[in-house]
Structures are given as C-alpha cells and as structure tokens.
Fold this sequence. Notes:
Distance between the termini: 36 Å
Number of strands: 11
Order of helices and strands: EEEEEEEEEEE
Helix content: under 10%
Strand content: over 45%
Shape: globular
Oligomer: single chain
Number of helices: 0
Amino acid sequence: HVQLVESGGGSVQAGESLRLSCAASGNTLYVYPMAWFRHVSGKECEGVAFVDGTGNTAVADSVKGRFTISQDNAENTLYLQMNRLKPEDTAMYYCAAAISRRCGSLVEADFDDWGQGTQVTVS
C-alpha cells in the first residue's frame, strides 16, 4: 500500500489557478497508475485525470485544456495544475493509487489507496 497526503486546496476566484500536490510514502509512485478524483456532496465521485505506470496521461472532458496532471518521481509527488478555474470545479479533491493495475483509469473502483482530500472552492 501507499500513504497519500494531498495539499494545495483553497478558495479562489473564477479564472484563477491552483496546484494540488499529493505526497506519497510507503511505495514509489511511478510504477502504477495514479489519479485525481473530485467529489461534491450528493453527487458521484468524478475522475479528473490519471497518469499510468508508463507516464501517459489523460484528463476528463470537463477539465480538458485547463487541468494538467504530472508527477515528480524524485519527490514521489503527484500534481494537478488547475487553470482557469470555474465555480463548477468546486469539490473535495482526492488523489488515489491503483497499485493492483497497470493501465490508467478514471473509475473510482479501480483505485486501492486514497488520500484524505483537499477542498477547492471557486467563487
């Protein structure tokens, strides 16, 4: 298993940017898929972006062109750069690791380990 701790959330105005970080310990990040999810109370969890074990990335259509996922293997940290934020991006953001998979995914059930989340509020 891997322990994940998110940071970087906050309250911003529409159009501004935030960068979320997810620090991992207990295992190295780059050997298995990682992803960012977001959740709004009363709604289903939404997969936002993933990076697979070979470095390929993908983002959800709802954030395409605005959000970028990346990872720093030396720092064992996953990032989500969020630009041109909109009020509908308001959510709790979680990073997750799919340590039993090889291929990237935006399906919540595919992920084994989760962080505690960081809140992003856009007004």
